[in-house]
Every structure is written in structure tokens, then in C-alpha cells.
Amino acid sequence: MKRREFLKKAAAGAAVAAGTAAAGCASAEQVQFTASEPAKASAAGGPSNAPRSARKKVRWRLTSSFPRSLDTIFGGAEVLAERVAAMSGGDFEIQVYPAGEIVPGLQVLDAVQQNTVEMGQTASYYYVGKNPVLAYDCCVPFGLTARQQTAWLMEGGGLELLRPAFADFNIINFPAGNTGVQMGGWFKKELGSAADLKGLKMRIPGLGGSVMNRLGVTVQVLAGGDIFPALERGAIDATEWVGPYDDEKFGFFKVARYYYYPGWWEPGPNLSYYVNTEAWAALPLEFQEIFKAAAEQSAVAMQVRYDARNPAALTRLLEAGVQMRPFSDDIMQLAEQESLALLEEQAAEDVAYRKVYEPWKKARGEAFSWWGAAERAYAAFAFKPPGV
User: Fold this and answer.
1) Do 230 and 203 form a contact (C-beta atoms < 8 A)?
2) What's the rounded Cα separation, in Å, for the pair 288 and 295?
3) How far apart are the first and last CA of the chain?
């Protein structure tokens, strides 16, 4: 295949469809991407007709917030690296490092900002202490589902609204995949009502942690690899992570029996690739387009892997004696009340935050109205939790 024809087919991706029915029916290798516009690329100083041997070779390092053992989240970054190398003929390589090998898992933003590494893979709600609006790049309590979040970011103007905030940190952000709605987490003791949350020590990051704090929970933020030891030795009484497949790998069920749902604070958390702005600007346009296509493909791969692997993992956990429980109605109602109040308070305090929040709020209302019809009716009829 001629190089120009190859680039036309591989360089630019279709919008991320993570969580859609189409993505759910396709493997990562089957995802197709639309052709780029070669005339536009050429006018912008894009790919030349120089032989491949004369093309600039690029080597980047990626530091992740996640351990290598999580072949779903961390594996998304590996898919990115594989696709970038394949589409560039090996001229653009990304070496992927798990949390702790270059920097700790919760210092990815700092490492990319300071150009310690060219890019990172992380969850933006880890950094709400730096700027609360960053949470909207990932998720907020009682916010958008995976498909809704992807639609808002990629087609609803979300990325354009958020990128000025990331520019303050010398970063350009790209969606990296979604886990789908998460579980409410692992608890050593059964929860009867909202009163049982008071004084509980729980690992929970982002705005979900802020809401839990308002409900009386003592909140801690720990990287993935640090959670099990803290739960085992009693430093925390409860933890959330993602869902059955990852949670089984971490072994939380060995030290906490009660598995609650739903994870109302993470209804559709989008993971992100952070790229240093100087590194991005120095990247040839050809490689920028390859990166975008590979990022989109890796995002789809993450979602379909979770959707394919969570069901069987839940079955295994239940067979191991895990007690699955829904959060009580009063916990859900109080949590929603405090969540929406928190978002309104933050919007009232910060004009820049409000510029993101108001369009997001409108998009959420419209999305919930549509999903409250066909999607909800089908789910309510067809989906039944274990034991029902």
C-alpha cells in the first residue's frame, strides 16, 4: 500500500463511540476510522513526500495513574502505543510506564505540566484541588453516563470548553476511554441508612469525595495500588474503584464483604491522555493525526473490554460469597441533593467554572429527558439485578 493511501485511511479517526451499541459489537481491532483531508494537512505543513527514512523519529514517554495489572485501564495506554507505532511504521513510539515507575499515580498532571514526560494517562477528577472544573473532563456526581459524557465531550463542545483550563497547566487533553457506570464500592459493614455513613473512613476521589465528606464520611484519596493494604489493615473502612473486573483483580472482596451500587459519583467517568503543549507543538502534523486516531481507537477498546469482562467477574464475586446491596433510598436522595448543591455553589463562586457548568447543565437536562424515555423504559423492563 502506498504511503499516501495508508495515511488517508489511518490518520484521522471517527468520533469516539465508546459505550455505543456499535462499539459494543466491535473489537478494538475492528474499529474503522474516516480518512483525513490531505489537502488541508498539506496546506498546514503536514506530511511531505519525503521517503520514510528521512522522516523525523519521535520517542515519547507516557506515565499512567494506574498499575500494569489493570489490563483494562492501563491496557488502554498500551493500545494507544501499539496503534501509534503501527500507523507510523515505528517512527513514532510511546513507551508506557505504570504508576510509580516515573512518578506516583496522582502526580501525572504535574509530570506532564513540567515536561518530565511528554504525556500521561489519568483521571482528571484527581486534580480538582488544582481547579474544580477539571472534574467535568472526567465526571461529576449524578452527571452523565459513559455515552452521554462521550457525546458531550466530542460533539457537544465539552472539549472546547475545557481546554482553556488545561492550557493553564501546559496540557492539551484527549479522551482516553470510559469505564461505564461504576459500582458504589466495598464496605466492611452493612449500611442501613445515611446515618451509617457518619464517621466512615473511605477512599473516594474527586467531587464524589467532596459529597461524601458533606455526608459525614472521612475521605481519603489513594492511588489504585495503595488501596488494598489500607483496607486490609483498617486504615479505611470502605473503598470504591471501578467495577467487578478490576475490583476482583485488586482482591477487595477478601477484606470487605458488602458490595454496594450504584456509583452515583461516577456514572460515566472519562479517562484522559494529557499531552504537554510544547511536545504536541513539536510533533509533525502527520504524527498528530496518527495520535488522534490511535487515542480514539484505544478509548473504544477500554469501554468494550469493561463491557465484555464485568459480567463474568460479577458472577465469580457472587459465587465467592460477596453480598451485593443497593444504596438505600435516603442515601441516594441525600447524596443527589448535596451533589447538585455543591455544583451550584462552585458555579456561583467562579466565573470560569460557570462557563463550563452552564452549558454542561443544559446538555445534562436534554440528555436525561431523552434517555428517560426509550433507554430507561427498556432498561427498567429488561435489566434485573442478581437475585431478582
Assistant:
1) yes
2) 10
3) 55
Domains (ranges, CATH) in the chain? 3-179+268-309 (3.40.190.170), 185-267+310-343 (3.40.190.10)
CB 237 within 8 A of CB 201: yes
Do 309 and 301 contact (CB within 8 A), yes or no?
no
Q: Decide if 112 contacts 124 (C-beta within 8 A).
A: no
Residue-wise pLDDT tens digits, 43-76: 333 444 445 656 789 999 999 999 999 999 999 9
CA dihedral (133, 139, 145, 147) positive or negative: positive
Of 239, 285, 240, 298, nearest to 64 by C-alpha is: 298
Q: What is the C-alpha radius of gyration for the chain, rounded to an integer number of angstroms? A: 21
* Coil, strand or helix at 64: strand
pLDDT in tens, 179-234: 999 999 999 999 999 999 999 999 998 899 999 999 999 999 888 888 999 999 99
CA nearest 10: which of 349, 289, 355? Answer: 289
Residues sharing a CB contact under 8 Å with residue 194, sequence separation 6 or more, in sequence order: 215, 328, 330, 331, 334
- β-sheet with 171-178: strand ranges across: 92-97, 58-64, 119-122, 270-276, 171-178
The pTM is what? Answer: 0.85
How far is Cα 86 from Cα 161, in angstroms, rounded to an integer?
Answer: 32
Kindly state the cell numbers that stand for 38: 490531505
Q: How many CB atoms lie within 10 A of CB 373?
A: 9
**pLDDT computed for residue 387 by the predictor:** 72
Question: What is the rounded distance in angstroms from the CA atom of residue 277 to the CA atom of residue 332?
Answer: 40
**Nearby residues of 333 by Cβ (< 8 Å), 6 or more positions away:** none
Contact 76, 298 (CB under 8 A): yes
Closest CA to 320 of 374, 383, 247: 247
- Euclidean distance between CA atoms 78 and 86, whole angstroms: 12
